[in-house]
Amino acid sequence: MTTTYKSTNNKQLTEHFNVSEFRCKCGGTHDTVLNPELPDKLEKLFKALDCSAIIINSGYRCPTHSVNIGGSASDFHTKGYAADIVCYDQSGNKISSKKVSCAAQDIGFGGISNIDGTYTATHVDVRTSNFWKGDETVTSAYSVTDDFYSYYGIPKSSGNVSTTSEVIARGIDVSEHQGVIDWDKVKSSGKVDFAILRAGYGKESGQIDRQFERNYSECKRLGIPCGAYWYTYAVTADEAKQEASVFLRTLAGKSFEYPVAFDIEEQSSLANASELCEAFCSEIEKAGYYTAIYSFKSAFENNIRSDVKSRYDIFLSHIGVEQTDYSGNYGLWQYSWTGSIDGISGDVDLDYAYKDYPTIIKNSGLNGFSKSYTKPSNPEKNTLEQILNHVANIDRKFKD
Description:
The protein is an alpha/beta fold and about 400 residues long. It folds into two domains: about 5-150, 2-Layer Sandwich (Muramoyl-pentapeptide Carboxypeptidase, domain 2), CATH 3.30.1380; about 165-365, TIM Barrel (Alpha-Beta Barrel), CATH 3.20.20.80. The protein is built from 13 helices and 15 strands. The strands form three sheets. The chain has an eight-stranded mixed beta barrel with strand order 8-9-10-11-12-13-14-15. A hairpin with an 8-residue loop joins strand 14 (about 330-340) and strand 15 (about 350-355). It starts with a strand and ends with a helix. The model is unreliable at about 155-165, about 375-390 and about 390-400 (pLDDT under 50).
């Protein structure tokens, strides 16, 4: 499905991309046709590579312009499915097309190719068949590989914090965007030990995720441990507290074996991230919940103070790598946005857990659970107390 925009339309499509960036370069005033999945995936690429900018050299092309520059009158650019891009890192340097291709592969673009001899420009598109992983310095006619990491000789990065051998549980995080999930198939897949469910977003009661109640009840029916998260649009501490209040009303009467998380991603929120995290999480924690903060690696490194990160659990998002090089502590790691699980149509986020959250939370009586844990008795102490009590009773008898 595509959307058509007038030549004067300057709608902001995502945090970093405007419709004007995708206009045809022919100089005419015709409409722009665009598949909304394209800017959405480019936004994911932006964050996965921690870009300072992604420049779209060529987005939508009218058929005439496409032919004039060597394309065809019916290629993916003319359909609004494609963009030729140059990515820049935080220092303003161009990111190699080799690295961009690997990240785009992880995100799930249908067509990907290096398009110049300096390996600085990359073609990406959102086709759904006849997938293409190309390198136009070799050929523009066919795919050159099934895996860009192997093709370009790029090792997936390894870190020194948590390794997959330390993973306690494997999970997914879902929202209404996954549609109606067949949780019986998810359970029987054997790939899901837990699920983190989006409860809602913003500060209005009507912004509860449309699948939250069903997802929660299905997890409980099937014995799938679950947590929850709330996506924030807050820009002030007061707004974050309002969101926390709505979140708590949504959680009422439910129990969660995994943390309830504050999802902070919007640039307007990240500008005041530490204060928002403190305001939201303190309200949730006071109500008896085990709280975590979800965000991207770059946000944890650049926007959130160390005292806040050490105060609450970290739910880290860093995709496109075999192992994150984030140097801080984290209990949950979202490592993919393109997982495939039986019972879920389309892509789903995949997560690792490095803590035994169900035991921690239940033993502490948090997240809607009653505290049932009792400290193990000390047999030696109990025996001594019995002896002393017995002696005391004998003394009282003699005195009587």
